[in-house]
# Entry
Amino acid sequence: MNQKLIEIVGKELKLIRTDKDLSLEEASNLITIKQQTLSQYENAKTNMSLDKLDEILTSYKVNKFLFFKKICERYSRKKEV
# Structure
């Protein structure tokens, strides 16, 4: 996956988590992954599978269509800059 896209996805996941007032610990327990792994996803330090992204979005109760729409919009803007 393109590094810019990975960064955008990570930032959006962190924004969703913080908007839900979840700490890294609380979110990682909800998703059943290590806290360090979630942090690496949010900070674009490691790639995640689409299955893992789906699991995270489902745990956060996020509309996947709206999530990907927002990601595409942000990615398009970054490419124009």
About this structure: The mean pLDDT is 93. The two ends are 19 Å apart (CA to CA). The domain at 3-80 is CATH 1.10.260.40 (434 Repressor (Amino-terminal Domain)). The longest helix spans residues 3-19.
